[in-house]
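USER: I would love a firmer grasp of how sequence relates to backbone shape in proteins. This is the protein in question:
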Amino acid sequence: MGTEGNEGDEKARVVLVDDEPDIVFLARTLFEDDGRFEVVGEARDGQEAVRLAERLQPEAVLLDILMPGMDGWEALPLIRRVAPDTAVVVVSALGRRQDVAERANALGAAAYVEKAKLGSTPGLVESDCTDS
């Protein structure tokens, strides 16, 4: 992540992707209040997410799965292709299901988080950014 060797001055850049405005607002609040992140973009569907990831090359993308148009499953490998150094954390209301986590991992996600546990994502993203 951008904070290494910089005494914490540089914040990790994050793109938030969800079709629910309330979830985007909550995620933005969590990440900005954490202090280690700067939310540099928001997308409402997978197609917009791919465009933002390619243009912004963020350290992380927080990606919902179930969205109209291009969903997160379709967007995930495309984001990995256009922004290979970006950690993609899949966030979904599908709950704690092993098959969902395995599919996310197989498509290139750094992690899978249930929306019910959204509050834990800043720490998880920090860890994924420093591991990449």
Summary: Confidence is low (pLDDT under 50) at residues 1-7. The radius of gyration is 13 Å.
